[in-house]
Each structure stands twice: as structure tokens, then as C-alpha cells.
Amino acid sequence: MNQAAPAPKENMGNPVPRIDARLKVTGQAGYPADLATANVAYGVLATSTIAKGSISALRLERARAVPGVLDIVSVGDMDEVDKPEFGNTGASSIAPLHDKTIFHDGQIIALVVAETFEAAAEAAMLIRADYAQETPSASFDSRGTRIEPAAGKSPMYKENLKAGDFDAAYAAAAVKIDQKYSTPTQHHNPIELFSTTAWWQGDQLTVHEPSQNVTGWKTELARQLKIDPANVRIVSPYIGGAFGSKGPMTARTAIVAVAARRVGRPVRCVVSRLQAYDTQTYRAETRHRIRIGANRDGRITAFGHEGWEVTSRLDPYVVGGTSATSRMYNYGSVLTRVSLVHADRNTPGYMRSPPETPYVYALENAMDEMAVELGMDPVEFRRINEPEKEPIGGKPFSSRSLIKCYDQAAEAFGWSKREAAVGSMRDGDWLVGMGCATAIYPTAAAPCAARVRLTDDGHVRVQSGSHEIGTGVRTVAGQMAAERLGVDIDKVSVEMGDSTLPPAPVSGGSISTASVCSAVLKACDAIREKLFAAAVGEGGPLAGSGKAKLEMEKEAVVTDSGKSARLSDVFNAMQIGALEEYAEFAPKGSSPEALKKLYAGQAEFHGGDQDEDSVKYAYGAELVEVRINSYTREIRVPRIVGAFAAGRIMNTRTARSQLMGGMIWGIGQALHEATEIDQRHARYVNRDLQDYLVPVNADIKQLEVILVPEVDHAVNPAGVKGLGELGNVGTAAAVASAVYHATGRRIRDLPIRIEDLIV
Amino acid sequence: MRPFAYERPTNVSAAVAAASHFTDARVPPTQANAQFIAGGTNMADYMKLGVAQPERLLDLNGLAEPALRQIRISDDTIRFGALVRMGEAADRAEIKRRCPLLAESLKLAASGQIRNMASLAGNVLQRTRCEYFRETSWPCNKREPGSGCAALEGLNRQHAVLGTSDTCIATYHGDFAQALIALDAVIEAEGRKGLRRIPFAKLHHLPGDTPNIETDLAADEVIVAIDVPIRAWSHRSRFLKIRDRESYAFALASAAVALDMDGDKVRQARIALGGVATVPWRARAAEEALHGKVLDRDAAEAAAEIAFAEAKPREHNAFKVPLGKRTLVRALLETRDMKVPS
Ligand SMILES: Cc1cc2nc3c(=O)[nH]c(=O)nc-3n(C[C@H](O)[C@H](O)[C@H](O)COP(=O)(O)OP(=O)(O)OC[C@H]3O[C@@H](n4cnc5c(N)ncnc54)[C@H](O)[C@@H]3O)c2cc1C
Ligand code: SF4
């Protein structure tokens, strides 16, 4: 065991190495744009350079004249197909080539297809558009935005949650704060660029594209192209980072499919880093007002959280993280309100813990301020306000180990050595600060199908149309099958990322491990049942052991009294060569149509705040130490400890890896990440990884992940709480808390930069 | 990316001849039809972005002269061949010992991969990273003379506060050049009219009304060497770089400092400032203010005030004035406190 492969504790699986690790590090994993495609032509996008107005003329002559150019798909060429829609599978209803209207900067105005990438790129640069330009609204403070209440605008945000009489409780509170916080626009920037490769064989369309939702895309693409979904196949075997960006399908996919039909050969379009900022989704910019009232003993009596979020002109994308913040502590009374601000921007979308990251940042920064106001240790302040039941519906928690997380994190971190007074800790020229924050993420699951096949030589094949976005779901699904069927993980192969496989839900909301493992578990159990029956049945190798407790181990069926029968003997008794089971899993509370909807690519989520019996969340506690140069004021984070409890941990290696990545990202959100907008033109300015900063190796010194044992049978059959999105929630607030502790400066607008501390 | 011709001359005079043939002396070198390429980490990037659109690339990596790839260290000079890679120069033990500032300015730049590709001459000539310059859809006087400057009233957090003009406020981002200008380096360049030596301080031009004219070099002049004199201040020298993250980021502010001390008094000081100016920036008035003085915090702060007396901050870069001053103060005091073999 080493740091990367923590020894499993109670209710934790082995740190099995990723089954595709070798393929990935040797460059043999086929990402969608790498898959061999014969006779491929290359597509390059041309995008608008204004954010608002319309195209008065598109001049394509110089582009067409470039040798090797085969075709240009531009405005008007998509009239035969239907427009994209905004929703779970569609990123935006902005339909670029259907319409001369420009809704945002960087909107697609043409796709050039050529024999070579170079020719297509050159031609795309030569396309000129004349615009009838209008003054765009860039963001919150711009003129011309449209503001509307978010409630009811999204199925995920039905109403503003409330409890008790906030106004009265806040007015009466002995200690209170009323503060504003903000988070910037952020882009996912997955290292694997976005791409679409499409081709037609007769009326059959195949698309290679990194996707977190192959089944959903199949249905949505078929709708746009007005063809039978059975004729569409989406292939996405490996994904080089997604973080939500590859969840909803964008307008480009249908455009490339149309181009492929026009040129009669495969077309591959890889989107440049720069163009991805505008043609894909991003994390919406948010603003918050938080009011907290408490008694002098530290007990909160009133919590108010109001949020404002920027979205595009057309689409009501709602971040709406008040569901988690309003259920975090024992508040007494709660008021929430979320508003959308429509501006001339592309439509935002899901980005790792979409609602929680910005909203919990605001809450936790405010909690730290309140602790200061009360003269209380910030960890102690959370402890005092630990709830028995969630404040909105009064439901119990299916399990909640937050205080255990704080205890274990504090122990490992040495929190007791923190001196309470601001600015009191120092190491030479460096100011030292220590801060904390809570991480929370809803535990959900969705219907999922899987097929498992076992042969008598002990080989297992698992198939499910889920997506390996780097989380390790392929490995844990294989691990689940290996454990249940008693074979070595080396004998398990796992197929994912293809819409011809049994459907799985969108890989979002940290539901994959729970949903896929529950389906795999069900299929494996069906196989076990058949094998057990045959083994102990008449003429079976274990005939007469009918009352024994049976297990599968080492490619054999074994009894509790030590008898065993090799798989091949059981198979012989059954006179079969392979055993295959197809299973459908639906979480408790699923609607009667839930499984039918799965096949149409619609995931019905259950869990989180949705269930009647209890609310389901995973929790964590993050403690950080920052160092700030007393003179030049650069900020560094030498140490961070996070303790997390998330039900059954399938694999301690992949779990730690997810949480570690999340915490590092959280540090980036605290100190680096922001997409800068030129407010005059509503255009992104830092559209590359040179100017869009994220932490590098040298920024991360000591990082510790503690997996806190937790058992929760209520969440799903696998007992798993998703943790892919847990690690980066709260981190930025913990850093802000530490910066305050070191300097006495409360920074409320992310990211926290040197200029905030120097002037 | 535009199609271009690629040529690999085999010696310096052939490179000069090819460049002379394909360029026009009336066109500013940054816009010349033929461009040299060494490591390509700057040129290839800007070609992909459409910022540079040369019709012909002259690859200097085929030049046969061995001196272009050598570092020669004598008692009083370090001589770098133009094609020496940043990584090699940064790691040379004797340079670290005799003139730490040189090695540090290279080591703290870019990333390991880039340092292994990038040449010293290319590094010195790297062009600005101004976001509006890098993207061709914005007005930019440096890229398209007369089109305007999007940064003046736009996002200008990374832009310069010293040496700016009404037409351009782009920062010169290189680190090595700060060491070179502080240490009185000399560039050796070969052109149509033969070899000439250019004091490093004369190499870069202030933007003024012509931000597209960046250096003193003609389009057909090839840098062959960089000479750095070793003097009394070389041992006691260092480079302090303040940036948003711990590695792989350009300076928000940097200071290159070399000191010749007489006890606790300054005999000679050499100061250059990076991340804050439009060109490599020698702070001569600040140096003079220190001469003969006891170098304590007050003296350092007084020098820093002088260095930034003319600073012209804009909306998002005002922090560079206090940051630049403090960076210089810290660098001066840390350089003073260096343990140096006598
Ligand atoms: C992500 C990133 C981060 C970076 N961070 C830093 C940093 O922190 N600090 C820093 O200082 N730099 C940094 N750099 C810049 C990097 O150091 C330069 O790109 C590099 O030094 C250029 O050298 P090159 O040999 O690759 O030049 P090229 O790209 O080959 O050429 C650059 C210019 O020099 C000209 N040229 C090259 N050699 C000669 C010659 N012998 N004679 C005449 N003209 C010549 C070329 O025509 C061209 O105009 C960074 C670059 C990147 C991409
Ligand atoms: S600062 Fe200079 S380089 Fe930047 S946009 Fe203005 S003119 Fe161009």
C-alpha cells in the first residue's frame, strides 16, 4: 500500500489499479478523435467576433478558393433539420446556422470542410462576415439584461425553498451578518479537446465524440436530423476529462453530421481550445447575498441565501444551489431566492458540482465570517449547528458523518495548534493562516441497464453504456462483477461508451458508480442464482448441499462447510458454455416510466433532496493552510487535508484520486480560475491555458485525503454515495477563511489574487 | 494557418542572404515576409493564431557554426551562442555560481519542456502575450498599425505601467532579458552589412507611436551571440519573480538585482524590472540613488519609489505599482543578504 492506494477500512473495496491505466499511459486508449476513420475530411469552425446583432453578409469566396476545400456549411444550410433544444441533453437552443441572429461572441457562423486540417483552418480564417452590430450586455452590471425569477424555469429548480419566519428571526437575532459574495465565469478546459467525427453508411449515422451521455445524444441527434434513433450510433470509449462539459450535446454535432452527408464521407471537426470557450458550456457567473442571524451562544436562528446567475438570452440555465445550502445546518428559519440574469452570452451548463460549488462557497465563507463575529472557532461553530433533521422538510438524513469528518481532518491537520487571533501565526517572512469549510454533495442514482456474461473459464464481460470520464467507473464496475462472481479482476473486461450497449444514464451528478454498480450487481446476482441452483440441484456437483450458504470464490461455487465446485463443472451440469444476464436497475421511488425513459436517453434522478423518506448527501471537511508573503503578498497553499464520508467506497485508489483532483481544483477556484470578459464587447479574453490559470504541480505540496468509514443502506443497493464532485465543494471557502486568518482581509469575490491583498 | 515556405540555411551568411532576398527594408521586421525560427515556441504559436503570417520561415537550427550552440566562460565574460537552449544555460553550474541572476532568470521561466526547446536569442526576442495582440479579431496597433489598442480601456491586468504610450501598453514578458539589461550584456548580430555589437539596453524599442517596431534588428539580421560581462556585482545577484502561481507563469512583477557591496554600503547596484514595463527595463535612477548608501529597508524603499515615479497605471493593473516596488525592495534586501564567496 502507498499513498495513492490507501488501505481499505470498514466498508471499503480494494485499491485495484485502473483496468485501463496501462492503455492510457502508453497512449493506446482510443479517444474519439483518435479512432481510425478511413477517408476522413477535416472540419474547422468559423465563429463570430461580435456578441450581439445579425449577419448581414457572409463572404465565403476566398475560403472556397483555398485548394482542398470541399464544402462550407453555413447559415441557411441547416434548414432541412430541426433546431437544437435546451434541456438535459441539449446544451442550448441557440441554433447558429439556422439563424442570422448572433446571440453571443464566438457563435458558429460556418463549418469549412477540406481534404486537410491545414486547408480547412486556413479557409476558416479567410471567412469574413459583415454584421449589423448592436451593443451587447456582458454581465450583471451591463445595461440591457433581463432579470427574472428562477423558480419554475427549470425542472431542477421548482421553487424558492423556505422554512419558518426568516424575517422575524433575522430581525430578532442577537448577532448577524449580511454580506455579498461572487464567483466568476469558469470553463472546464478538459485536456482532450472537443471533437465530432461523423459518417453515414446508407441511412446509418455513426458519431465519434467525447460524450457523457451516449444514449441521450443518440435520441437528441436523431430528433434534430429527423431520423430513427435506431439509425444513430454514438461512440465514446474514452474521455479525456469532461467535468460536465461533455454532458449536453452542442449544436456542432448535427452540423458535422450534415456536413458528412453533403460531402459523402467522414468529417472530423476538432474544436480549438479558443473556440471551445464559446461553443461549449461553462460555469455561470454568480452573485450571492447571505444573511445569517444567531444567538450569542452560536446557534443559528435565521439563514437567508439569495443568488443571481448570468445565463444566455434564450435559455434559463439555473445553477440554484440553495437546495444544498438550505439543508446544511440547523438554521431555525430559511429564506432563499434565485434570479436569472439574461445577457448576450453563450448558455452556461454543468461544471463539476454545478450548484454546490458557487453556492456552498458563499455559504461557507459567510459561516466563517459569522464565526469571527461570534468569536468562535469556525469548526466549533459548525459543530454547534449540526442538525438532527434537515430544516426545509424536516426529513432525516440517510446518514451524515460531517462531524466525524471534521474530527478526523482536524486531528490529521493539527487544527488544535491554530492560534485564534488574526495575523498571529507567522513563519519568517510568511504570514500563516488556517481555514476550514464543509463539502457536501447530493447522493443520487438513476435507472441503468447492464449486461454481464460469464464463461466457464472464469472470464467476465460487463457491458453498460456508461462513460469512463476519468473517474474510474470502468474499473469499479469490473471490480463489482469480479467480487460478486468470484473471479480475478484481470479476467474482467468492461465495455462502455457506446449507444449500442445497454443504456446507462448521463454521467453527471456523481450517479455513475451507484447506478452502474447497482445494475451490474443485479445482473451478477441473477447469474449467481442460476449457478447456485444448478450446483446444488439434482445432478449438480454440490447436490445435497441445498441448505448450505453459497458464495463464489476463485472461479468456483463454495459452501460454508468448505465444499466447492469449479465453474466449469457447474457449467457442464447446466450444459451451457456461457451465462449472460441483462439487468435493469431503477432506484427506489422511480416512476413507472423510468426505465422506458432510460432507453430514450432521459435519466430520472432519485435521491438527494428528492425522496420522501430521507435526504441523501455525502459530506466532507476540508482544512487548509495558506502562506502569504508579508511583503509581496503572493498566496500559496502548502497544506490541505480533506476527510470525506461517502457510504461504501468501491475502490480506495480511485476514490482518493477523485477527491484529490477535486481539492486541487478547489484551490484553483480559490486563487486562479476565471474567464475574463471584456465588458464593452461581451467577449471572453483569456481563451487559452496560458491566461486561464489552474494550479500546476509546484502549487500543490502536501495534500491528504482521509476516507471516513460510513455505512448507508438507504441510498441504493450498492450502498454507494457518489464522490466525484464532492472534493471541490467548499475548498475555495476554506482558502478564503485561511486568507482572512492570516491577514484580516475578508475576500468575498473569487478568485483571491495578489491585488486583493496588496493595496 | 497559412501555407508557408520552409527553408533550412546551413550557415549564418546563407541565413542572412536568404532573409535579405525575401524581405524589404521598408517593412518593419515584425511584418516581414520571411521570419527566422529557432525553438519555435513563440513563432509557431503566433503563426497558428494568425498573429504572424510569414510567407517563408528560415529555420536557424540547421546552421553549422558550432559556436552558436556553445557557452564559453572566461574570467570576465560569459558568451552564449544564440542557439543555446534555455534549459542548458539555466543548469550550468558555473553560471549558477558566478552569476546566479542569469541562471535564475532562466530557471524561473516557462516550463521544463519549453526551456528544452527555446533558444536564448528567441527568448530575448519573444513578443508580448497581450491577450488582444494574440487574438486577431481585436484592434491592436502592434499587430495592425493604426487599428487602435483594445487594452487601453479593456482588460489590462497583465499590462505595463512603465514605458507605455497612448498607442500600446503591452508588457515585455521575458525574464532573461531583465538579467541581460541589468548586467550590461551585449548582443552580437550578423547582417547584410556584417557583424555588429548592440548594447542590450539598445536592443528593444519603446512602443511610442510605432509599437510594431520592437527591436533595433533588421529583418535580415541574425543574433549569433550574447556576451555578459562578469564584474564585481555578478556574484551577488539574484532574480525575484512574483507570479500568480508557483511555476509556469509570467511575472506580475520581477526584479533583477546585482550588487557590489563595500561592507554594508553599496558601491554599485544594477537593477532591472520585469512584468511591469513595455521593454526590458533598467532602473538607472534607482541604482544611482543607492550608490554609496547603506542598504537598509529605508534606502531600498526610497530607491523603489524612484523606480516607479513615472508609472502610469490603468484600470486593472494599478496593483503593479505597489507590487513592483515591494518586489524590488525584497530583491534588494535578499541580494544584500546573500552569502557570497569572497
Ligand atoms: C506557455 C508559455 C510560458 C512561457 N513562460 C515564460 C516565462 O515565464 N518567462 C519567459 O521569459 N518566457 C516564457 N515563455 C516564452 C519562451 O521563453 C519563449 O517562447 C522562448 O524563449 C522563445 O524562444 P524560441 O527559440 O522558441 O523562439 P522562436 O519562437 O523560434 O523565435 C522567437 C522570435 O525570435 C526570432 N529569432 C529566434 N532566433 C533568432 C536569432 N538567432 N536571430 C534573430 N532572430 C531570432 C524569431 O524570428 C522570432 O521572431 C513562455 C512561453 C510559453 C509558450
Ligand atoms: S497593448 Fe499593445 S499589443 Fe496590446 S492591444 Fe494594445 S497595441 Fe496591441
UniProtKB/TrEMBL annotation, chain A:
A Pfam family per the record: MoCoBD_2
Annotated SUPFAM superfamilies: CO dehydrogenase molybdoprotein N-domain-like (SSF54665), Molybdenum cofactor-binding domain (SSF56003)
Keyword ATP-binding: no
KW DNA-binding (keyword) present: no
Gene3D superfamilies registered for this protein in UniProt: Aldehyde oxidase/xanthine dehydrogenase, a/b hammerhead, Aldehyde oxidase/xanthine dehydrogenase, molybdopterin binding domain
PANTHER family xrefs: ALDEHYDE OXIDASE 1-RELATED (PTHR11908:SF132), XANTHINE DEHYDROGENASE (PTHR11908)
Protein name: Xanthine dehydrogenase
Classification of source organism: Bacteria, Pseudomonadati, Pseudomonadota, Alphaproteobacteria, Hyphomicrobiales
From TrEMBL, chain B:
UniProt keyword Flavoprotein present: yes
Record carries keyword Flavoprotein: yes
SMART domains, per database record: CO_deh_flav_C (SM01092)
Pfam families: CO_deh_flav_C (PF03450), FAD_binding_5 (PF00941)
Domain FAD-binding PCMH-type: 1-233
Keywords associated with the record: FAD, Flavoprotein
The organism's place on the tree of life at top rank: Bacteria
GO MF terms, alphabetically ordered: FAD binding; oxidoreductase activity
Protein name: FAD-binding molybdopterin dehydrogenase
Organism: Mesorhizobium mediterraneum
